[in-house]
Amino acid sequence: MFVSVLLGLISLLLLGLSIRLFYTSMRKTGRKRVLSRLGQGQPVLAPETNTTQNRLDRLFVRAGLSRPGERQGLWLGIWGLLVLVGAVQAGGVGLLLMLLLPPLALRLYLTWRYQRRVRRMVEQLPSALDHAVRSLKSGRTLVDAFLGGIEASTDPLREAMGRVRRNVELGVSLADAVHDFAEFYEREEFRFLALGLKVNHRYGGNASELLENLIKLIREREQGNRQLRAMTGETRMTAVVLALLPVGMAGFFLVSNPGYLMHMWDDDGGRRMLLMAFGLQVFGCLALWRMLRSV
């Protein structure tokens, strides 16, 4: 019974992953095609190897943390110990929980730190670009003005854009360096900046006017996002309550009357009901999350 349930959960997980990959590919816009045409004949950065270690390092760096490095073996050992303790103490259920909960908690923590950090970076970006515009109008080149804007900014933007400075010092063009930065942090405002610099680099134009328009665009988007969050605050709070209420009720029963749920778990029909309720809870949380992402 446990093996069939485990296989069913794994199949549902793989199905959800395949649907997400298909949805991501369908949402691909013409931005990459435009960037590829603009970058024809230009030197580009060497692509990073798409390995598990690189993806893990990317998650940590984007969240503002140092790479796991040598500590990775220690954390894997602790995770293995937790899995062993869960299997000994609670059997198959404990094994499954310890296999899934620590990676999920780590991913949620890194995502939360990344979103908070990149939101702060977007708030700081107009000030850095405004400094670059003033430097351009005083007679400096675009590269010097942009790097000066980076130095004039504060963390976390200055620390993150150190990636741009290093690439420029290694001989990469400013447009390609900013494009690499934008794809690393996967934020639309940074991609707008990269696209504008690529257009200016290939076709020329008034760089100060370009940056001023970008400043206006970024500030208007930020203002619109804040207004949207204020208007949908009640909806988001309702979604959080609906997601946490069943979990809270189950926790209350486990604390006040643990025999109630354990008696259901010992019965075949009750076990199927609990597993079905767990699956519906996961599906409902995912549906609410997608609904919140769409507003």
Describe the structure.
This protein is mainly α. Helices cover 84% and strands 0% of the residues. It contains 13 helices and no strands. The protein has helices at residues 2-26, 31-38, 52-62, 71-137, 142-152, 157-160, 162-169, 174-185, 188-203, 207-231, 233-256, 258-266, 268-294. The two termini are 40 Å apart.
Helix and strand arrangement:
Elements: H1 2-26, H2 31-38, H3 52-62, H4 71-137, H5 142-152, H6 157-160, H7 162-169, H8 174-185, H9 188-203, H10 207-231, H11 233-256, H12 258-266, H13 268-294
Helix pairs in contact: 4-5, 4-10, 7-8, 8-9, 9-10, 11-12, 11-13, 12-13
Compact overview of the structure:
By secondary structure, the protein is mainly α. It is 84% helix and 0% strand. Helix 11 crosses helix 12 (258-266) and helix 12 packs across helix 13.
User: What is the string of SSEs from the N terminus onward?
Assistant: HHHHHHHHHHHHH
Which blocks of ≥5 consecutive residues have pLDDT under 50? 40-44
Query: What percent strand?
Result: under 5%
Structural class computed from helices and strand pairing: mainly alpha
Helix content bin: over 70%
Query: What's the total helix number?
Result: 13
- Give the radius of gyration: 24 Å
How many β-strand runs? Answer: 0
Overall mean confidence score, pLDDT: 79
What distance separates the N and C termini? 40 Å
Q: Please describe the biggest sheet, giving its number of strands, its sense, and whether it closes into a barrel.
A: none
- Outline: elongated
